[in-house]
Specification:
- This is D-ribitol-5-phosphate cytidylyltransferase.
- Pathway: Protein modification; protein glycosylation.
- Homodimer.
- α3 crosses α5, α5 packs across α7 and α11 runs parallel beside α12.
- The strands form 4 sheets. The chain has a 7-stranded mixed beta sheet, with helices on both faces.
- About 35% of the residues lie in helices and about 20% in strands.
- The chain is elongated, with a radius of gyration of 26 Å.
- The longest helix is centred in the last third of the chain and has 21 residues.
- The chain starts with about 40 loop residues before the first strand and ends with a strand.
Length: about 450
């Protein structure tokens, strides 16, 4: 019932992993003790997601053609100090989960069957580490329990939860209450209210010494298995371990309703649009436009490189957004267009070879700087069709290709307005990541 981890030598790089590259910064935190003991994760993912109101359980709903649970798994997989992620799913979704593990190259995941309730599923996940025959799930010192539909968990918090669990035996994330809690009478009237400042909302992740939480589940009652919801309470009731509570960030929310899926998509879009790479040709006009764009795109981290060849592979792996500048000396001439397409195709081939588009879509904004006075309306139909065909083809590989044409002018005021408009359109395309606009050639 367990699935062995997939293996791959090429892991796609993570653009900040939704949390501003916090994993890369962990070495710069002298205040945090190192994690020098085995840590594992249990993700219960057997729920039906009734409150979302969709036929698909919320953990398998997709954002950018990728299931929500894959984002959550990656939040843990990216951390070198976490060894194994046990995902607990219902029997009917077992094969679906295995396909997700394979498709998105999750290398630390074991998939097992869940139970009829949340607590039964968590216990099943904990029991996976008791199997002496499976070396892929060694017994951890600390186990983190998390919700499969909470994808935005930061390493800072995970470190605090893990270290506190090792020292105290149990730890959990909390958040201030947003609403006042009231009690109602049997007739439906107000009975009393609680003083909100004295209470906190219990959240995930929660961390435990493995022996503590496993023993708690061995001792808990059938009533706990059926109706219980708080793992920290089990550790206190059956093992006498009082958890250390740690306040989590505002991003520590879970997808519960349909509207939360839209909110999660917006967060992912915002994160993916934090950086861009500008690729400019050797022409002086292209270099000048690249520098101006870099200055205008001050809300993003931008690099300018002369071409998209293998020598610049490091830059191509840093981001999911690319602005490819080319100069049209003869407006939309067939040879020029073919050459421009070739540069874009080389980029796409590089992404395919490095698996760069497996987890997140890549945006390529192809900017053509027209140096002639020929009217935009004279564009050849077959050449526009070729561009749309290319966009239609590469979108299958998770690449979103947009086109913008800007007319060069030596009139300073007019040129500034054009470049400003180009910047606005480029930012909108990168942020919106709208697949419906791929293949369109916009004009400035």
């Amino acid at each position: 019932m367990q699935q062995e981890r997939c293996s791959s030598s090429d892991r796609p790089l993570d653009p900040g992993c939704l949390q501003a590259r916090d994993a890369e910064r962990s070495a710069d935190r002298p205040a945090c003790a190192p994690v020098d003991f085995p840590v594992a994760v249990v993700l219960p993912a057997g729920g039906s997601g009734e409150r979302v109101g969709l036929p698909t359980p919320k953990q398998f709903c997709t954002i950018f053609n990728r299931p929500l649970i894959s984002y959550t798994i990656q939040a843990f997989e990216r951390l070198p100090w976490i060894g194994t992620v046990v995902v607990v799913v219902s029997k009917e979704n077992h094969d679906l989960m295995l396909n997700i593990v394979q498709k998105f190259n999750h290398t630390k995941v074991n998939v097992i069957h869940g139970g009829t309730t949340r607590h039964r599923s968590i216990f099943n996940g904990l029991q996976a580490f008791c199997s002496t025959s499976n070396s892929l799930t060694p017994k951890p010192k600390v186990v983190i329990i998390h919700d499969a539909v909470r994808p935005f968990v930061e390493e800072d918090l995970l470190l605090k939860i893990t270290l506190a669990a090792k020292e105290q035996g149990a730890s959990g994330a909390i958040r201030p209450l947003v609403s006042t809690i009231i009690a109602t009478s049997s007739e439906g009237y107000l009975d009393h209210s609680l003083e909100r400042a004295k209470y906190r909302a219990s959240e995930m992740p929660q961390g435990f010494l493995y022996d503590i939480i496993f023993q708690a589940y061995q001792r808990c009652s059938e009533f706990d298995f059926e109706f219980g919801s708080e793992c920290l309470h089990l550790a206190l009731q059956y093992c006498g371990v009082n958890a250390k509570l740690i306040e989590g960030p505002p991003t520590l929310w879970k997808v519960t309703y349909k509207r939360d899926l839209a909110a999660a998509e917006a967060i992912i879009k915002e994160t993916l649009s934090r950086s861009a790479c500008i690729i400019a040709g050797a022409e002086a006009e292209a270099a000048e436009l690249a520098k101006t764009l870099q200055k205008n795109l001050n809300m993003m981290e931008t690099d300018v490189i002369p071409c998209a060849k293998e020598s610049n592979a490091e830059y191509l792996s840093k981001t999911q957004n690319f602005i490819h500048l080319s100069v049209c000396q003869r407006y939309m001439h067939t040879q020029t267009t073919g050459s421009n397409f070739l540069g874009v195709l080389e980029m796409v081939k590089h992404f395919e070879d490095t698996d760069h588009t497996r987890l997140y879509p890549v945006v390529i904004v192809w900017v053509q700087l027209n140096m002639t006075k020929q009217s935009v309306d004279s564009q050849k139909t077959d050449e526009l069709a070729a561009f749309r065909s290319l966009a239609s083809e590469v979108i299958q590989g998770n690449v979103l290709l947009y086109g913008i044409q800007i007319e060069h002018t030596k009139v300073p005021e007019q040129w500034e307005r054009s470049v400003e408009r180009l910047t606005q359109i480029t930012v909108a395309l990168i942020r919106d990541r709208n697949a419906a606009l791929t293949g369109q050639l916009l004009h400035v």
